[in-house]
């Protein structure tokens, strides 16, 4: 995040961080409320708490604030972008490698 902030500063982009404890729902909710009150032009968010995130995505969408979801895809809302892994393909690869490794005792290096 710091590297991106430094690279974008030249273009007038200001990054405001709202950090929360990933094990504490109340911490997330407090930071999410502060974020909504900030009136930002865009938001990048990592929604660790699925159910608790939904009202904030609704508020961002109603306000017309574009948002990017990082590391957790939320299918109920349409973010500007999603940054994260393709878990379906990752699981398929892991399962295939496990089966091949157990049957043939060889490592699996597959390209999908």
Describe the structure.
This protein has 112 residues and is mainly alpha-helical. It is 47% helix and 9% strand. The protein contains four helices and three strands. It has helices at residues 2-9, 25-37, 50-63, 87-104; strands spanning 43-45, 67-70, 81-83. A three-stranded parallel beta sheet has the order 1-2-3, with helices on one face. Helix 3 links the parallel strand 1 and strand 2 (67-70). Helix 2 (25-37) runs parallel beside helix 3 (50-63). The longest helix is centred in the last third of the chain and has 18 residues, at 87-104. The two termini are 29 Å apart. The mean pLDDT is 82.
Key structural traits:
3-stranded parallel sheet; globular; mainly alpha; 112 residues; 47% helix
Strand-helix topology:
Layout: H1 2-9, H2 25-37, E1 43-45, H3 50-63, E2 67-70, E3 81-83, H4 87-104
Parallel strand pairs: 1-2, 2-3
Main sheet strand line-up? 1-2-3
Terminal Cα separation, in Å? 29 Å
Overall, the morphology is globular
Give average pLDDT, whole number. 82
Kindly provide the radius of gyration, computed on alpha-carbon positions and rounded to a whole number of angstroms: 19 Å
- How many strand segments? 3
Q: Which regions have little confidence, pLDDT < 50, spanning 5+ residues?
A: none
What share of residues is helical? Answer: 40-55%
Order of helices and strands: HHEHEEH
- Structure class: mainly alpha
So how many helices? Answer: 4
Main sheet makeup: 3 strands, parallel
Approximately what portion of the residues adopt beta-strand conformation? Answer: 5-15%
């Amino acid at each position: 995040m710091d590297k991106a902030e430094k690279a974008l500063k030249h273009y007038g982009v200001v990054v405001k961080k709202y950090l929360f404890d990933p094990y504490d729902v109340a911490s997330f909710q407090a930071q999410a409320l502060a974020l909504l009150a900030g009136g930002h032009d865009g938001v990048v968010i990592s929604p660790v708490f699925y159910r608790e995130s939904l009202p904030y995505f609704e508020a961002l969408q109603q306000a017309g604030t574009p948002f990017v979801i990082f590391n957790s895809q939320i299918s109920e809302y349409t973010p500007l972008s999603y940054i994260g892994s393709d878990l379906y393909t990752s699981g398929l690869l892991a399962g295939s490698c496990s089966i091949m490794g157990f049957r043939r005792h060889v490592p699996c290096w597959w390209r999908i």
